[in-house]
Amino acid sequence: MASGGAHDHHIIPLKIYFRVIAILMFLTVVTVAASRVDFGVMNTVIAMLIASVKAGLVLAFFMHLKYDDKMYTVAFGTSVFFLLVLYFFAWVDFYTRFIHTGIVQ
Amino acid sequence: MSTANTSASSDGKSHVHHHAHHFDSAEHEYNAAKFGTWTFLVTEILMFGGLFVGYILYHERFPEMFKAGATFLDWKMGALNTIVLLFSSLTMALSIYYMQHDNKKMTLINLYVTLACACIFMVVKYFEYTHKLHLGIGPGNYFQPHGHGEEVQRALGFLKDYPNIGMYFSFYFCMTGLHGSHVLIGMGLIIWLIRRTHRNEFSSKYYTAIECVGLFWHLVDLIWIYLFPLLYLVG
Amino acid sequence: MASGAHDPNLNYLNWEKGLWSWLTTLDHKRIGIMYMISVMCFFALGGTFAMLIRWELFSVGKTIMDAKQYNQAMTFHGAIMVFMVIIPGIPAFLGNFIMPMQIGAKDVAFPRLNLASWYCLMAGAAVAFISLIYNGADTGWTFYTPYSITTQNGTIWLVTGAFIIGFSSILTGLNFIVTVHKLRAPGMSFWRMPLFVWALYSTAILQVLATPVLAITLALLVAERLLGVGIFDPKLGGDPVLFQHFFWFYSHPAVYIMILPAMGVVSELIATFSQKTIFGYKAIALSSIGIAAVSFFVWGHHMFVSGQSEFAGILFSFITMLVGVPTAIKTFNWVATMYKGSIRFDSPMLYAMGFIFLFTIGGVTGIMLAVVGVDVHFHDTYFVVAHFHYVMVGGTLMAIMGGIYYWMPKMFGRMVNETWARISFVLVFVGFNVTFFPQFILGAMGMPRRYYDYLPEYESLNRISSMGAWTIGVGFLVALGVILHAIKRGKIAGPNPWNAKTLEWTAPSPPPHENFHVQPVVTAGPYEYR
């Protein structure tokens, strides 16, 4: 591997950074506005979806995932996947034990 | 076995970065450091994730109790902290951008602003915590509202309707506490970067540490991006 | 830091002298040896608790301790063996030493982090042993709530110690993942890596993904005790079963952290001592990854009777049976490797063959337990105790022993005394079966585990089991003697006494500080015998 140092690293142009931060601020406003509307059981889901769009932007641009080795995205995706596995199976237990049987507040 | 990588930074002073002997080149070391940092972020996601999973599970089981607990959170302070952290992510990314252009001065300015944002975040957090604890609103068994005022009356009322409301605040303090401790760690790391930048240890050829701390800082921001709506908005 | 222009008398052991040079070393080989010493000491301590337990269980009624002391002893036995011996045992010791050499690297990716991992293990162990002042914990190594919330104070120290030790595991895993990805020698593609490296890589993925969940779980347990947070406490609407979900989400993959490296060692041993290419290399490599992946979906099989819903139990039961498939693939492939091989019955091979036999019993009884209807009867009986000892001792510990005897020439430049090494094998192998096979029967007869006392009809099998345990103890003392004697006075070994084909055997025995005098370039697979 040549000792070319960091010359060959991709540099994100300033204007992309500024566009991203603008969208992130806007989405923060959307998050708060959306919380005013009652979507019932979908409240959490919608909040998480908006948060995920924001997170995606931070990951892709601020954290450079879009331009980097795909391995980093795989690593990140793997962590989220197994976190969801923890949630899913624990939820199946909780649901069939409490919610489904009506032992809720 | 000299592994030097010389370059001049924008103020004319030159420095040398020696990559570790078990790597072939500085680029090799940079890639390993980045991959190592991402692997570390994986562990942080699983650790924080456990708290999120617990929170979401109990939220589905005690929806009314969680809603009641969330009334004690000021969404404006949460939103302010969100904006502050998002902005700090920008300045963190910019500090890398400027070092990629050998601009030591702008790198430092952005690092200082990032640090300042982190301070603002912790100050807001401090006010939130002290306000609650002053009223006796603590985690678990320490949910013992005392004193006067509308909030205390509301808390005592909720305690009657939802005797386990202390659990909501357990999650609140544990999740924001763990997050806050990571903000503090991040601040320490940024101070370390500022010192090294002052000493001309970085250049467009070597800025690995800034990049890796940056990734950590963005993760801290990511966690807050999820914490804010979950705790402050959905309740 | 060069070890002096290829002076043949200098190697990683003697080029720098003094305790301080060891405590501040960044050399993966020295760190591996430090782990070896630590783990052996912890094993002696955990083993002592085991001997005390078996002594107590020799007879009905009180023999040498009362019920509370018994609960404390069995908790310490479990916690020490799980967290301080079996989990770090192969990766941090053999893995640290051998893996970088097997990929032709000079060190792991992050040597300072490697040293920090060792200090985490030692610091965590120190904190855990402080609990002895308070008589430790009596919860069992699984720390189930709500009992662990209210019971004696030593519990917090033991839990905190385990928390710190967890970081040792996480950092080792992180280091190994990056090392495998970034430091392979030219020509070493993933498909040319030795199977020991594949095994360690799969293990590292588990360490990095699963251990953080244990960390947060233990931290929450401490918060429960100190602040009453109520997340696992029914008084505040918390669910004790949720503690078990979080705990086993880590602890089930943890048992694969324990066994995957052992399987990696066995692959090396079988190939070398059959002098034959491993049968089904890709299948074994991918089965390691497969086991690692599936291990995350089965944790509820530890909770069939804890109170989780029936539906969840059925789901977990079904998925658990899948994990037997990649495991069986390995076993068949090892046997197929031996077929028509040129087999040598040196002590490492004896341990490898012992592994195959004992691990198969352990694994098959695991599948029995996976069937939820069967587990309802066997849960918390000695059947389970026998099952996990067959896989952890009959499996992992046999592999560690085989690995030590196999790599002894590389690590210390000496051969072990084969006669006494074989004697140690016979004592351990026979002793092990005498200890634990009766426990399958005791479990089927209904004897509960973690009980200080038992009904008279269980006594004769318990006596046999205890005598087996003492035989194992003697066997390991002999093994210790073999190892220590070999290090000091063993026959001097050449670079490759076993005619093995993996890269570590191309370096001198013991290796120089930088592993290889010339960077290896790989042009063939790891087991090209013919």
3D architecture notes:
The complex is a heterotrimer of chains A (105), B (235) and C (530). Chain A has 105 residues and is an all-alpha fold. Chain A has helices at residues 14-36, 42-62, 70-99. With 235 residues, chain B is mainly α. Chain B has a single domain, classed as Cytochrome c oxidase, subunit III, four-helix bundle (Four Helix Bundle (Hemerythrin (Met), subunit A), Up-down Bundle), CATH 1.20.120.80. Chain B contains 7 helices and 2 strands; from the N terminus they run E-E-H-H-H-H-H-H-H. In chain B, helix 1 (26-61) packs parallel to helix 7 (208-234). Chain C has 530 residues and is mainly alpha-helical. Chain C has helices spanning 19-23, 28-56, 67-102, 111-130, 147-150, 154-182, 195-227, 240-274, 281-294, 310-322, 324-338, 347-370, 372-378, 382-412, 418-444, 459-489, and strands at residues 414-415, 491-492. Chain C has a two-stranded antiparallel ribbon. At the A-B interface, helix 1, helix 2 and helix 3 of A face helix 1, helix 2, helix 3 and helix 7 of B.
Residue-averaged pLDDT of chain C, rounded? 95
Secondary structure class of chain A reads mainly alpha
Number of helices of chain A: 3
Look up the CATH topology of chain C: Cytochrome C Oxidase, Chain A
The biggest beta sheet of chain A reads: none
**In total, how many beta strands of chain C?**
2
Alpha-carbon distance between the termini of chain C? 39 Å
Total number of distinct structural domains of chain C: 1
The pLDDT mean of chain A sits at 88
Per DSSP, the total helix count of chain C is 16
- Determine the most extensive contact between two protein chains: A-B, 55 and 62 residues
Widest sheet of chain C: strand order?
1-2
Instruction: Tell me the CATH superfamily of chain C.
Output: Cytochrome c oxidase-like, subunit I domain
* Low-confidence blocks of residues of chain A: 1-5
